[in-house]
Amino acid sequence: MFWDIPRKIERLVKMTLEGAQAKVIVDGKISAPFTIDKGVKQGDGLSATLFNLTLHKALKKTWKKKQ
Prior knowledge:
The protein has one domain. The model has no long low-confidence stretch (mean pLDDT 83). Strand 2 and strand 3 (29-30) form a beta hairpin. The chain has 2 helices and 4 strands, in the order αββββα. The strands form 2 sheets. The chain has a two-stranded antiparallel sheet with strand order 1-4. A two-stranded antiparallel sheet has the order 2-3. By secondary structure, the protein is mainly alpha-helical.
């Protein structure tokens, strides 16, 4: 487990993000698809969840240091 997250959840997140592609509009033209290697797509519901998990872990670490 990584950060106390069950392996099954880790695998599901990886499966969701692997091979993710996006296109952008530049000067009114749609680009060719490109692979997203880092992070998540803007507006992806998973983004907020991953952010909250990371923030929770950082806060727990900070609180432990203060005690």
